[in-house]
Specification:
The complex is a heterodimer. By secondary structure, chain A is α+β, with helices and mostly antiparallel strands. A two-stranded antiparallel ribbon of chain B has the order 1-2. In chain B, α1 packs antiparallel against α2. The chains are: A alpha+beta, B alpha+beta. β3 of chain A pairs antiparallel with β1 of chain B.
Chain lengths: ~325, ~70
């Protein structure tokens, strides 16, 4: 291999390549010889042939179309020698047999690349938000898990995979998770369920993990995935871990007071309002007043909606709904 | 030429490359060898169809030729 030729092509010869016509013309899944170009007197007299192809022992290009869009053209090119310009009939038949498979594979490859790119972007954004998150289909199959979520699975803390589905500790909680996922997949007349919260037990001296199950609006799921549409996002919150930055960011966005921010943190940590009152050493009436003001400021009506609104900020591109 | 078995392997390699992109180089190599060609390249080109010209190209797989990025 001689890098001189690739440098020469990049620097100059791609600009005067008469075979560009073939790349632009070839149909995906079809085989196209270039002899109608390369075996002409004008081609054999051109600089591209004499200065670029011939010194490399190339006399002909046979191509298979792979992808064709308004702005792209994918092409498999085979360079032929002067002593073997044309393909043997068996070789031509082989290319014709392979061409539809190459076309299909190229299309799938492109699709998967786009899906992977979207997934990785989503994962990076959600990871940056600092929470573990799973995206599940309506029957709890795991479409996506970010690095923090995979870490919970690896460490066997409250969650595991079973035949590709997310399972939590205990059959009752698993059944609850599956009901929430099914509800998330049900979009009758545009209705979106508010979701729910599940506590995941772990060792006795550690507080349970809190799993907030947030239904995904259908428009978002369509925009991100085409194959397996996620119905819900499951955000895992470890109350023992600090997530003050996200709480403060959300509080600043909606203008919450310090007292309201403390109540918000209790709700996100999975504590109900009575427990929040006990932990913060204030009355139940005071907690309810703060909660009511939080709902007003965040334009929500209940805790599940508030939790949903909180995690909206963790998903990229979220505007009106997750 | 033992068409059916060899072709089957090559077709399998094509679909394997969807999952493992590094497999495209081997696919190109095997097609080059099976057709007695000098070299082979897969190019994904950005094109300006109204102007009928190639704007740029990525080369995800090559065999017996230098990788070219225009």
């Amino acid at each position: 291999l001689n890098p001189f030729w690739s440098d020469a092509f990049v620097q100059y010869y791609h600009k005067i390549n008469p075979l560009d016509v073939q790349v632009l013309a070839v149909t995906p899944g079809k085989v196209l010889a270039s002899t109608f170009i390369t075996q002409t007197d004008s081609f054999k007299a051109c600089a591209f042939y004499n200065e670029f192809m011939r010194p490399q022992g190339q006399a002909e290009d046979v191509g298979i179309g792979l992808v064709r869009t308004p702005i792209t053209a994918g092409y498999l090119a085979l360079q032929r020698s002067p002593t073997s310009i044309s393909l043997e009939p068996e070789q031509w038949k082989l290319l014709e047999a392979l061409a539809p498979h190459l076309q299909r594979a190229a299309a799938l490859h492109e699709f998967l690349s786009r899906a992977r790119e979207a997934t990785e972007s989503l994962g990076a954004a959600v990871a940056a938000a600092g929470f573990a998150v799973f995206l599940l289909t309506g029957d709890c199959r795991v479409v996506f898990a970010n690095a923090k979520a995979e870490d919970f699975i690896r460490r066997g803390i409250g969650l595991r995979y079973e035949r590709g589905r997310l399972v939590v500790t205990g059959p009752a909680l698993t059944a609850r998770l599956h009901v929430l996922a099914q509800q998330g997949a049900c979009h009758k007349t545009g209705e979106v369920h508010a979701g729910g919260t599940i506590e995941l037990c772990r060792s006795e001296n550690r507080p349970p993990l809190v799993a907030h199950v947030i239904p995904l609006a259908p428009i978002r799921t369509l925009a991100i995935f085409d194959l397996e549409r996620p119905a819900v996002a499951v955000f895992i919150v470890d109350p023992a871990a600090g997530f003050g930055a996200q709480i403060r960011q959300f509080a600043a966005r909606f203008g919450l007071t310090p007292a309201e921010t403390r109540i918000l943190a209790e709700i996100i940590a999975g504590n109900g309002l009575p427990a929040a009152a006990a932990r913060l050493k204030i009355t139940g009436a005071t907690v309810r007043t703060h909660a009511y003001r939080i709902f007003e400021k965040t334009e929500t009506n209940r805790q599940t909606e508030l939790i949903r609104r909180f995690f909206e900020t963790a998903l990229p591109g979220a505007q009106g709904g997750v | 030429m033992a068409r059916s078995h060899g072709d089957g392997d090559l077709i399998a390699a094509i679909y394997d490359a969807i999952i493992e992109p590094s497999g495209w180089d081997d696919v190109v190599k095997r097609i080059v060898e099976a057709t007695g060609s000098v070299s082979g390249v897969i190019g994904i080109h950005q094109v300006d169809r109204p102007a009928h010209r190639i704007v740029s190209a990525l080369v995800p797989a090559v065999y017996n030729i230098e990788s070219i990025l225009v």
